[in-house]
Amino acid sequence: MIRAGLIRQSSSGVYSLLPFALRSIERIEKIIDQEMRNIGAQKLSLPILLSANMWKRTGRWDTTGSELFKLKDRKTSDFCLAPTHEEEITQLVANDVFSYRQLPLRLYQIGRKFRDEMRPRAGLLRGREFIMKDLYTFDTTEEAALETYEEVNEAYNKIFSRIGLPFVIAEADTGNIGGTKSHEYHILSPVGEDLILSCMRCGYTSNEERARGITDNDGCPVCYKDSITSPLKSNRAIEVGHTFLLGTKYSDPLKATFAPENPLYKGELLSIQMGCYGIGVSRMIAAIIESSHDSKGIIWPPSVAPYRVCIIPGGDEPEITEKTRSLYDFLTSECDGLNDEVLIDDRMNLSFGYRMKDAELLGYPWLMIIGKKFLESGKIEIHNRHNNQRNHLEFNEIKNLFIECKQI
Amino acid sequence: MIRAGLIRQSSSGVYSLLPFALRSIERIEKIIDQEMRNIGAQKLSLPILLSANMWKRTGRWDTTGSELFKLKDRKTSDFCLAPTHEEEITQLVANDVFSYRQLPLRLYQIGRKFRDEMRPRAGLLRGREFIMKDLYTFDTTEEAALETYEEVNEAYNKIFSRIGLPFVIAEADTGNIGGTKSHEYHILSPVGEDLILSCMRCGYTSNEERARGITDNDGCPVCYKDSITSPLKSNRAIEVGHTFLLGTKYSDPLKATFAPENPLYKGELLSIQMGCYGIGVSRMIAAIIESSHDSKGIIWPPSVAPYRVCIIPGGDEPEITEKTRSLYDFLTSECDGLNDEVLIDDRMNLSFGYRMKDAELLGYPWLMIIGKKFLESGKIEIHNRHNNQRNHLEFNEIKNLFIECKQI
């Protein structure tokens, strides 16, 4: 990622996101925004600088340990840099929600989070400052909260499907977040920190952590109940999403309550049933690259590529420059989903070969070459980075390539 | 802003941005993105958590004083929460730029900044955690840097013009940022912290701070040079933008240098000429509201309104519900610039009068009422929040109202 000019290290586990990486992240955010909107979630933005008060009330000020960045302001009050926002959002909802009429409520944000990792590693994979999407849901009953949980998991399926890389969903432990039910979303990659066990027979999938002691080639515990022995296969994977059914773990101590529709007695208040749902947005970029590259460089899925097309002019003859410009105009105005998605590599002080190699390293889904051959035949040489195919197409034939991009 | 449900205080000077405020902020960001792109600036994202090293090299670790939030990580290394990013971006450019061929370069970001204000005040006007756009420019010569400075100031003019509120540009001091030339952009408001002095005759405008000792009704110092006495008028204003021509204040200590096109001697390196340019994005929301409201509530300029239209159904009869839905579909699909900009206030447990008052408080540019009168006449009652006019229009006549919204 450093060689491709995506990120630069500022300090251990802390990175600057350069323009290409940021574009890719904004892509992911757009997909998330759309799918969150489809399930009626509203976007807000909570502070990074959090007062210690509520963290002390839930006990996490002490239990989170040294992963929590702590600081004092000029009046020596305690603050932390948000690693997650259960306390903050629960407090917010506790102050504004009073009645069943205001529920269900689904609130999410996309922003910075901080965790003082003991051993930050592998660039954006485990950073100390990172970008997360976190959704918090609020329901009146356990059943409604469970339905919400299923609905959000469906939205997660859509998000990961749209990004377009193979992913697995595993049952997971709830850890420091707490709650009663939890799933992880993983992108498969040999450099992944997590080991995922899957049963080919029944589809049971679990994080090794949760499967406690069960490992590769052991029998599937679900099939075992049916007296069948089916060996589990293990795969390395990178966790990019996590869902938690929280129950009242946060609404109880922070008194996030509501008056029910049919109270048992006058003034009855019930605790709100919560869920929380994260996606590691900056980590996703790293996971995508780990899972989708070859010896030449990155292979971006078109859905999240910083740019979808790179045009490489073969020389600086006026005719080539002019045709390059025409192709650019044609792509950005006539082809679905390519507006603002096309780049021209006109660094003519660099050789054609260098620019080709650079474009392959950067991983544009489509490379288009306007050179001498084009001037002779009127056909553009197009490289598809994903399947390595080369085509020679005329302007009008190009359009069909991008019909599917409209939906992305 | 609290009453209108835009923000909630988390701690002193630290706020959560609720969905309406965030939508408005995303609007402003979009306008900024477009105008930055028009001057060839690339967007990136620098860390919030900054190592103290570079701040010590420029001397600002000590000179910034207690406004700087300082903290230590688990290895007790010094960090601060970024109040601004001159050090970080200069270091980044110093590591990646070597030759005049890579210049000019314009890099910007939109993100959180932190300042431990002694007296945080007035919500988002002076917060301890806030959102800023900051652009940094890199040129080979002083002349080129000055041209860049003028070009960015033109882009700033466009940004503030598009937002649509009266603003003034004042000569300003360079303060802790440093540099040789500086201008401030202000939105006029009686609650503003700054006092702006303007000469009606020659157009001279200056921040009182810079005008040192000159105050209201004193003679204009520019006109005085022509032996003319012209009294200055003072206006209270809120600073929302600031531009600085930096010279080599940061590139010298951080060794951001380049090999010039025509070196005087072999291996000659010159310091890059820099500029930096800020816009207070979250403060802008507060400034807009301070400058554009009446006794009923906010009057959003359409360019940055959270939603442009609110439809209020007069009752819950099936016919009204159906027509409300038709109007919603018509507006979002047939009217320019209204896709995703229309809200229906269908909280039918609240009275019509309450919802009308609430809509005026929230400041939607257009209110549309579908009630009994509509069923009789087929005309929709439309309130224009800006000029207080009421119109009764049929579906097809509505379209013309929004032709201008397309450009916003």
From TrEMBL, chains A, B:
GO biological process: prolyl-tRNA aminoacylation
Class in the EC hierarchy, top level: ligase
Tree of life domain: Eukaryota
Biological classification of the source: Eukaryota, Fungi, Fungi incertae sedis, Mucoromycota, Glomeromycotina
Subcellular location: Cytoplasm
GO MF term set: ATP binding; proline-tRNA ligase activity
Residues spanning the membrane: none
Organism per entry: Gigaspora rosea
Protein name as it appears in the record: Probable proline--tRNA ligase, mitochondrial
Keyword Protein biosynthesis: yes
Keywords, alphabetical: Aminoacyl-tRNA synthetase, ATP-binding, Cytoplasm, Ligase, Nucleotide-binding, Protein biosynthesis
Coiled-coil features, chain-numbered ranges: none
InterPro entries in UniProt: aa-tRNA-synt_IIb, aa-tRNA-synth_II, aa-tRNA-synth_II/BPL/LPL, Anticodon-bd, Anticodon-bd_dom_sf, Pro-tRNA-ligase_IIa, Pro-tRNA-synth_IIa_bac-type, Pro-tRNA_synthetase
